Amino acid sequence: MEMVKRPRRLRGSEVLRKMVRETRMDKSSLVYPIFVKEGRGIREEIPTMPGQYRYSVDTMEEKLEALADAGVGSVMFFGIPDHKDEVGSGAYDENGIVQKALRKAKEQFPDLYLITDVCMCEYTSHGHCGVLCGHDVDNDRTLDLLAKTALSHVEAGADMVAPSDMMDGRIRALRECLDAHHHYTTPIMSYAVKYASSFYGPFRDAAGSAPSFGDRKTYQMDYHNIREGIKEALLDEEEGADIIMVKPAMSFLDLVVKVKEAVHTPVAAYSVSGEYAMVKAAAKLGYVDEDKIVCEMAASAYRAGTDIYITYYAQELAKFMDEGRIG
Ligand code: PBG
């Protein structure tokens, strides 16, 4: 048979397959999200996210150490406060849970890169991502509080802030506030392309942040839309975002591709709690091979163009990369 082009020629051995591999990954691009809560001696497994825990400030050390040992250099903090109120004051309290965790983490692990999620839903009694006006979030009043939150994180030791609230104009508000306090060099990673998604279900259990009424559809995007996602990405880049995030990851990789073409910043993809929970559940039932699925999900996010991968599997992935199972 006359056939000049035989694609299988390049698949003949592991050495060759690795030589021609198109997507290469590195541990330095992994970010691990961690939940910290008030109290002492707490290491509570999250029922909907087996293998993930809520740590108190004194116990998070063991996890941070394990991450650092595995070569995961960046962590993103989520706080679970003791008290919530209408205006989410725990978010910008200098003795708030995230602020305390940051001070401790900075002291114990000066080389670890500390990112914070900037949002109000974990701190408001109604569970929405800002202050309310009637039954909707008041965009412009929320901006001041988000900026205050970001500033208090940076002053407590955050190396980077990541607003996830989806208010209009928040990148500009944060940038102006940080700059006014001489934090010109602190980068902002914007959750710019964030959809109203059921994939956040387990997270809301973990953080106790489900909205007490309604949903987040007046601020997070409709998942039928792609042009709107690009619009958000471009707006946030213009307002000064240093990194643009797409969230969730797995079902939104088309957005990663498009956003990567549209912006000039690095792109991040967040493989969210629902993705983690689905893999865990299917693996527990023996329906899938957890390690292999996790590698494939990560590789597809990088293949789509993500530069940074935020995942609850960061520590495992670092190990798989060391072992040459992916990368
Ligand atoms: C806060 C926030 C959420 C997530 C990250 N930041 C929840 C939400 O928007 O409802 C979700 C992360 C995950 O599901 O892993 N707004």
TrEMBL record:
Binding site for Mg(2+): 232
Annotated keywords: Heme biosynthesis, Lyase, Magnesium, Metal-binding, Porphyrin biosynthesis, Zinc
Amino-acid positions noted as binding 5-aminolevulinate 2 in the UniProt annotation, renumbered to this chain: 273, 312
First-level EC class: lyase
Annotated binding of Zn(2+), by residue: 119, 121, 129
GO terms under biological process: heme biosynthetic process
EC number(s) recorded for this UniProt protein: 4.2.1.24
Pfam families (UniProt xref): ALAD
GO cellular component terms attached to this protein's record: cytosol
Gene3D superfamilies in UniProt: Aldolase class I
Biological pathway: Porphyrin-containing compound metabolism; protoporphyrin-IX biosynthesis; coproporphyrinogen-III from 5-aminolevulinate: step 1/4
Binding site for 5-aminolevulinate 1: 204, 216
GO function term, MF aspect, one: zinc ion binding
InterPro entries: ALAD, Aldolase_TIM
Reactions catalysed: 2 5-aminolevulinate = porphobilinogen + 2 H2O + H(+)
Subunit: Homooctamer.
Primary role: Catalyzes an early step in the biosynthesis of tetrapyrroles. Binds two molecules of 5-aminolevulinate per subunit, each at a distinct site, and catalyzes their condensation to form porphobilinogen.
Protein name: Delta-aminolevulinic acid dehydratase
